[in-house]
Write a structure and sequence with these properties.
Blueprint: H1 5-35, H2 44-66
Helix pairs in contact: 1-2
Length: 70
């Protein structure tokens, strides 16, 4: 295996990593703002855990299932 191969792979996937982290941060900030109002289905603390541990799927689930429309 070429020693530079992991760096080549990292160069290809870093935009995906940045987008994922940005989406998670956006979801967490939105959760903090909405927490003052209400979240649906689960508590804000549980949604925070789902967003952090669930990565893209967790953040998407929050926007689809957990965000209050009010």
């Amino acid at each position: 295996m070429d020693p530079s191969q992991p760096f080549e792979i990292l160069k290809m996937i870093w935009p995906i990593i940045v987008l994922q982290l940005g989406f998670q941060i956006y979801a967490l900030i939105d959760l903090i703002i909405v927490k003052k109002k209400r979240t649906k289905n689960l508590s804000a603390f549980i949604w925070g855990i789902i967003i952090v541990l669930g990565e893209i799927v967790g953040a998407a689930a929050y926007f689809v299932l957990g965000r209050s429309e009010e």
